[in-house]
Design brief:
The chain is α/β, with parallel strands linked by helices. The protein has 11 helices and 5 strands, in the order βαβαβαβαβααααααα. Helix 8 packs across helix 10 and helix 9 packs across helix 10. It is globular and about 50 Å long.
């Protein structure tokens, strides 16, 4: 089965690498591709192979702001799209809403980016798919914070490490863990992690 293809449009190498790490923590099978300019991005988006997710910084060497957004929207496939930008522009945010695109400001904490990324990945799943496998559909009933905890649980992290990463108390992490186990209808972290990875694979299959 082909690996999900993710396109990261970002001209800053360190930022692009950080985004790729976050993507692969949520979607372990992902293959990340990079474009450092709009022209390079458009060339890759023209590929006949589908893109499951496109993440785009709007300030590129050869294009800025709404021009970048519109150009990418015109050629992107049906996969999810997330705009990651430091620009504070209501016109851009309104364009994102109009096109069903998530917007996240680069100045926000990494955990906020992870929550937005998980939300973008959820959009890859057609509405009817969850009904075919109810337990997988339960993943979508989790709150944003619970999904973040689940992502880290699936990587084998301890409650203490998750608490440090998300700036929460261990007690809060344990509370989120108990609640997500209940919502998922599983007995332990291992089963929850397996269910999450199955959910991710289902999204990829139906993207």
């Amino acid at each position: 089965m082909p690996h999900p293809r993710i396109l990261i449009i970002e001209d800053h190498p360190l930022m692009a690498d950080a985004i790729a790490v976050s993507v692969q923590s949520c979607l372990p099978q992902a293959h990340c591709f990079f474009a450092t300019s709009l022209s390079s991005a458009l060339e890759q988006l023209a590929s006949h192979q589908p893109w499951v997710l496109v993440l785009v910084d709007l300030n590129l060497p050869d294009s800025q702001g709404l021009d970048t957004f519109n150009a990418v929207c015109d050629v992107r496939s049906q996969g999810a799209m997330l705009v990651l930008s430091a620009l504070q522009d209501s016109a851009i945010e309104q364009a994102c809403v109009a096109n069903g695109v998530l917007f996240i400001n680069k100045a926000l904490p990494s955990r906020t980016f992870m929550a937005a990324l998980l939300s973008a990945l959820q959009r890859m799943l057609p509405l009817g798919c969850a009904e075919e496998t109810p337990r997988l559909g339960n993943v979508q009933s989790l709150s944003a914070q619970q999904r973040l905890v689940l992502v880290h649980l699936s990587q084998g992290w301890t409650s203490r490490r998750i608490a440090e990463q998300l700036h929460l108390s261990e007690a809060t992490v344990r509370s989120h863990t108990r609640e997500l186990l209940r919502k998922l209808g599983v007995d332990n972290r291992t089963q929850a992690s397996q269910l999450y990875l199955q959910w991710v694979q289902q999204q990829v299959n139906h993207a």
